[in-house]
Structure prediction request, 498 residues.
Amino acid sequence: MVRIALPPERETGTISNMTSPVFHSSDAAAFCSEGLSRRRLLQSASASFGWMAFSALHAEQAAAGPKSATTHHRPRVRSVIFCFMDGGPSHVDTFDPKPMLTRHQGQKIGDKLNNTLYNDPNRVWLGSPWKFRRRGESGLWVSDLFPRIASIADEICVLKSMKGLQPLHGQQNLLLHTGRVLGQAPSLGAWVSYGLGSENQNLPGYVLLNNDWVPNGGMENFASSYLPASHQATLLRAKGVPVDNIRPADTAAIQRRKLAVLARQDASFARSASDASAIEAAIVNMETAFRMQSVLPGVADIAAEPQHIQKMYGVDSKDEHQQYYAMQALRARRLVEAGVRFVEITCPSFDSNNSPWDQHGKLKQNHEKNARITEQSVAALISDLKQRGLLDETLVVWAGEMGRTPHTPKVTATCGRDHHVNGYSIFLAGGGIRGGMSYGETSEFGNAAVENILTIHDVHATILQQLGMDHERLTFRHGGRDQRLTDVHGHVPPEILA
Prediction:
């Protein structure tokens, strides 16, 4: 039996102007007459099977409630799959062609870049080792580094004018995931889970498909912070058993008896606690974990998928890193089919690099390795969602935490590019997003975003918008004020919406 860790005390969370907000475990008092405290509720229920059934009812109501009631407006999508390209893929080698770099390769950059980390005037421009071509009916620019993604060019919207805050992996990872360079805030996936609840009471709302590599910034990238702990990511590993203790050693009857004992212990503690909200959440979490045992292994098992589908994703690859990434991408589709709201896939590290896409050297060799590991599966995921009629209701996000410099210390066969946050590219695909287009521009050398500049907060606001939530109204009371994923920032660029 899985026992989920006791969450921190929950403060009041709101989605303003909702007719029927998402029901959380700490809202037990709302089901009772006014003035009946949580403590008295626990006491009266004796915290045995009666209380467990009561808590299970909460989860059921959250899962089965009308979906429109948990949103601010009509949602365009019901789920998000985030393909995280850890380390920073080079924008000028993927989606943002810069002929000036090739034309001026080897020439010094001069003293015009004083506002960047890598601003030595003796650094030189570096052209892309890959050719760019117009792809699909839309004519979207995609380099030869991504031939499979090029084949679905008409499905993707490239945001070419992203701008970050700090050219450091940890800080940018936290910014991408939590909206804060220092973290200490819930992740995007946790906010989505908190705002929308779960479509499937037997599965978590937020799943992390990890490839045995924890990005810079640590597990805080995927945590719930001050939101209830039930909204943090549930981790599924690529290798071995996906989830610890998911296959029980005890029968269901024995597990139920154990749950009853744990519930009585929790109730005893609740009677002495000033606030029972954390204990209530723990009981609900245990019930969810109990139900996950019968559902999650089947969803995670791709053996039943047709061989041609497995091959399309790359599960048959002889490269174990590509094989595992393909398996996780296929699991992502299965999870959103089953009702999981937010799924993230991390990149494997093939050489124990600090961040897989972080090529300060060996740009050509290692960007090609990363592309071989991931891009077939990403393209297959988008194509598979489309052929199943799921792309209209699923938003796919492909993004690293930063880009890479258009220049290098010296042009050699093994040279690379350094950290760059002044302008870089990510892409979106799926329901409600215009495909076959790019938005924004960088300067002629790709050194800075200059047109329709976007931030991570804008991307977060757009994701929430497509899920039916207003980023300014999705709030949680903490630290004396209403907290938001986007803080005081964020806007949705209407030009990219279909």
Summary: The chain has one domain: 77-243+296-496.
